[in-house]
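Figure-free illustration: sequence to structure, shown twice.
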Amino acid sequence: MSTAVSVNFEDSLSTRDFRQLSSFIYDYCGIKMTDAKRSMLEGRLRKRLRATGFRSFGDYCEYLFRQDGLKDEVIYLIDVVTTNKTDFFREPNHFDFLEKTALPTLAKQGIRQPRTWSSACSTGAEPYTMAMVMAEAVEKGVIADFSILATDLSTDVLRKAHSGIYNRDLLEPVPSAMQRKYVMQARDKYRSDVRISPKLRAKVGFARMNLMNPSYEIGAPVHVIFCRNVLIYFDKKTQTHVLTELCKCLAPGGYLMIGHSESVTGINLPVKQVANTVFLKQ
């Protein structure tokens, strides 16, 4: 095992430690750390080593796997390895479908207070975009009210999401009319951060959830699920598990939306495709 003599991180991740880490990460959250991702993992772990004071990757892995350190460190380890790319109105056709098809159709079925779930919410751009679209639907009388559950594996991104504070540039895709209603500007015009309005933040509940859990305890079935751009990190076995459990949480007549680069091909699910990467539970 390699051991550094000072915190200069010229040490590298050994094959043994990489394999043990990648095996644990896959078992814990379904993310495959292939050999091609070894340097990425090493780079991200350097920050964690600095935070914890370990002098080498070997010392860190010794602590994790042979000194029972995982019970205290696992949340931070997973925060380091998860990817959290997000934007407001990302893949906008899903929000168009939510506004123009899903919500009116649910309302016609008598569901005027739909429950929705952003199942890999990252720093919150997705659920807050959902909330803007649904708040507009309330204003227009399409629905009476709504609630959004937003979950993620990473505690770090959940803290950021709960705060609702973002760099102004990230809000550029949000239409100006929505920004005026749902985004608070700082009094200091030179500040670069803005905040989602309290009224909108109150409609979103954040919680930590691992999609590798045997089942998803979210309460009553929901009417819309967004699970976008997370399946691409899973192998087919894990994709099957995640999609199967998501469908169990979806009410009949509810909608599942996945990322544009993702597919349900070859997975037996109680859904039919009704638009590009949009599925209706039968």
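We now fold a second protein in the same way, so the two outputs can be compared directly.
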Amino acid sequence: MKKPFHYCTTDHTILHGTIHSEEGEPLIFLHYMGGNEAIWNGVIPFFIENYRVITINLRGHGYSEDRGKGYDFDTLAEDIALGLDHLGITAAHFVGSSLGAYVATSFAARWPERCLSLVNSEGALQNDTGPGGKFTESKEERMAKLGSRSETTYSSKEAYIQHLKAVWLPWSEVKERTLEGLEVDQREDGRVATKPSHNSSMQLLEHLFNVQLEDWYTNVQCPVLFLPAEVEGDLEGKLTFIKDKLEPILTISKTEVIPGTTHAMMFDHYEEMSHAILSFHKEMTSLSGELKN
């Protein structure tokens, strides 16, 4: 089953999502920056029999509105809380990719009682700045570098899709299915650009640079699974940050590196990713039972 839904945020932005199944504990999937809920199409079949699976398009992504504001993590986390309220969900499991992992972790830090578990794939693994961070440049230098990149536009949505197929190799059935949720920003001159807009993307990246993950994870109470990609770059930096900065402040956590994975592992390694999440949930259920006894 696929049951689309939408809801309104406190700043009157309309967000869209999909309910994929109704049985079991709620499981929320949140996509990466520039993606949409359809990136999870390869993963979802592994969970629909035992979970109430829900995907949400973050603001400015997919069919959700981009109003050019609200791209700080407090607002993004509140967006998710309102989505759960709309669906009558008290607490849920979360799986996030990149930006989605940051949003889910921000949510779990603000409302720890509403997060049953957290799986962070290539996101919320390492600070941008500070000791052990990704970058040595200042915020001003980083934003100037990112802001200097010109925005690419396309003659049509179809032209953008053909571009994706040419550069996003190897193209596959799973990637083809992500096109179900693809939406573009129509310009006055008739050309199209990807979502979110350049301005909204810059807001996201600026807020991301300020994030200090230790502050968030200190408030997280649920089990956390870290899924850093093996071949994405600076794996050792991520593993060191997790080991030195994050594991000591978490009650229960696990780190797993799936061989051959890249940033968007839900495409070329969707089976391995799904099994890692399911195994983690099983381990946490078993551990919870032991603690009760």
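Summary for the second example: The longest helix spans residues 270-292.
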